[in-house]
Design a protein that fits this description.
The chain has nine helices and six strands; from the N terminus they run βαααααβαβαβαββα. It has a six-stranded parallel β-sheet with strand order 3-2-1-4-5-6, covered by helices on one side.
Length: 213
Amino acid sequence: MKKYILFDHDGVLVDTEFWYYQAGERALADIGFTQDKGQYIRDMTRGQATWAQARAAGVDEQTISRQREVRNAYYQEYLRTEAIEIEGVVETLAELSKYVRMAIVTTAKRADFAVIHEKRRITQFMDFVLDREDYTLAKPHPEPYLTGLQRFSATKEETLVVEDSSRGLNSAMAAGIDCAIVHNDFTKAQDFSQATYRIDTLSELKGIILTEV
């Protein structure tokens, strides 16, 4: 039986990935650049994101730096105004807390994470949160999940990662940890062939935990 779960955050516990994309698309549109969504998703699997296409098209770093701040403001606007809950998450975490200890390992920035959880009940079930400021190398590098193991003083064998992206899956695999991929419409076309489990909702995790030996 697994004793620990390390959750990714965006797309797993809250439905934010589309809004992050939308904020970046809007910031690029402000300077007359049209972002290709398919290329964005492909870039995301490699740990790149909003600005890769703009750089390739010759947009200078000063402009990118300015529009990054614009993107951040748009994103926080969406976080405060759009529906980002995933149905059943709180109830599932409450049930899982009877069997395992849990934490969040996210690439979200601390400021964004704080906005998301101002009025939500997710973090009460977590032993700790590792956000982007808590490690040096981001997913798909294994450092984020290895850092999570160290914080728990857990072994790889007694831990499960829950992710929704191939970037996160690759991070978990590089760390040597079993990974369950939960369905997310935004990332559903990515390659999850190496995942230990594929699930439609987090409620399926209880069955995985209780059958693991």
